[in-house]
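Run Betaine-aldehyde dehydrogenase through structure prediction, thanks.
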Amino acid sequence: MFVNGKWIGAESGETREIINPFNQETVAIVPEAGREDTQKAIQAARAAFDNGEWPHTPATERGKKLFEVAALIEQNNEELAKLETLDTGKTLVESRADMEDIAGVFRYYAGLADKDGGETIDPPMPDATSQVVREPVGVCGMITPWNYPLLQASWKLAPALAAGCTLVIKPSEITPLTTLKIAELMEEVGFPTGVVNVVTGPGATVGAELAESNQVDLVSFTGGIETGRKVMQAASGNMKKIALELGGKNPNIVFADGDFETTVDYAMNAVYFHAGQVCSAGARLIIEESLHDKFVDELVKRVKKIRLGNGMDESTQIGPLTSAEHRAKVEGYIQVGQEEGAKLLIGGKRPEGPEFEKGFFLEPTIFDGCDARMRIVQEETFGPILTIETFKTEEEAIALANDSVYGLAGAVWTQNMNRAQRVSRSLRMGTVWINDFHPYFPQAPWGGYKQSGIGRELGKTGLEEYTEQKHIFKNLNPQPMGWFN
Ligand SMILES: NC(=O)c1ccc[n+]([C@@H]2O[C@H](COP(=O)([O-])OP(=O)(O)OC[C@H]3O[C@@H](n4cnc5c(N)ncnc54)[C@H](O)[C@@H]3O)[C@@H](O)[C@H]2O)c1
Ligand SMILES: C[N+](C)(C)CC=O
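Sure, done. The structure for Betaine-aldehyde dehydrogenase is below.
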């Protein structure tokens, strides 16, 4: 782990084996930290914030460091991508694309670091000035999930550092490798001691300590809704700021006038990309009734041909799920779907063959004949499971799509742009795609309505999350008030 500028083990000496989900081989052994290790890292970040130079370093200089990080990520793209694939099972092609995105995130916040010089207000009284400035929020605790380990970390690290914060980051205990590697790259760039700290270990101890600690000013969490609830409760002790990026159950609404070929192609990509382990996966197909039969026939034909395999193999389209525990959870949902009376059209089991024996594979699955009250429609299965519902009218499509505790993302497919606009404005979601699925980029904010989260990452808002606003009022001609004369 990287704490206070040093590479250290856990004080207890405990370690954890990191497993390749394709073959269960051990790819690394990392420290298994506990609360004491976390407290030390928080103290280092606290000292670097309260007494160190980083929060007062000119924003342009902070930006320069982030440009250097971006360059190092690009230079190390292949190594980082391989580590990500070994850790998560996602395909190498995806991991390489993630690394390009991540370099882009650092570059975006590097450029944004010195763009907000504050605001001068015209005060409603004479002989006074009024200024609003932004200052770093302080020590940040960051907790990240296993599905996009370094990407989700970069959405926190880059804006926090641009703002002048110091931090302790805890990657998912099962996928820490790229977060450790980026700490190495940051050490090479040379941030002041204690500004960046990485602690590897479980959520119940390391994560909980970050959320609870009175020495932490903000906790930024990406993960599941139930863990998010715990983080929110734990953060209330010192009223620390919170940013929560939680799950989604994202509707993909297809009207009959959408381009058939493109819509079928994207419907598959929406749900099966990264084996469905994507917060914004289009796991809920809501299709106009008149198109249903033709669309679903074609979908099933194509899903049969999806190539599962080792993420390291460039011809693989879907790798294994990231852990045995997670596969068991997704399999549980397949059973739930069958018990609820949904019609299993394809998949629903582990693939057969020697190449799949050791990996945590699951076949791409489709449930037809679903309705909005089913658990497989309402709950985030976070696996390769597509549920299908039908609608007859635009109003019905909107009502179905909004019938969810989540509000992360959704898409609408139609060639009628007036309808596309109406539907997109009616969806209670942080992101709506029209005739597309999945795009996200550093310039646009990302986050959820309803129980999909609090706050936004990316975009200008993603930087503002790591700042406090201060109003500085100056009386240019102070005179006695005489109120108590
Ligand atoms: N909205 C987004 O942008 C986004 C992006 C990626 C993933 N996600 C969500 O993440 C989830 C999948 O990731 P996961 O299974 O790693 O989530 P998770 O909630 O199980 O774990 C996330 C992180 O929280 C830690 N944690 C666990 N218990 C904790 C506790 N009591 N206190 C503090 N931290 C704790 C874990 O160790 C891990 O680092 C899905 O729900 C997915 O939708 C959301
Ligand atoms: C936010 N995103 C889409 C990169 C990953 C969600 O799991």
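The CA atoms of residues 57 and 348 lie 55 Å apart.
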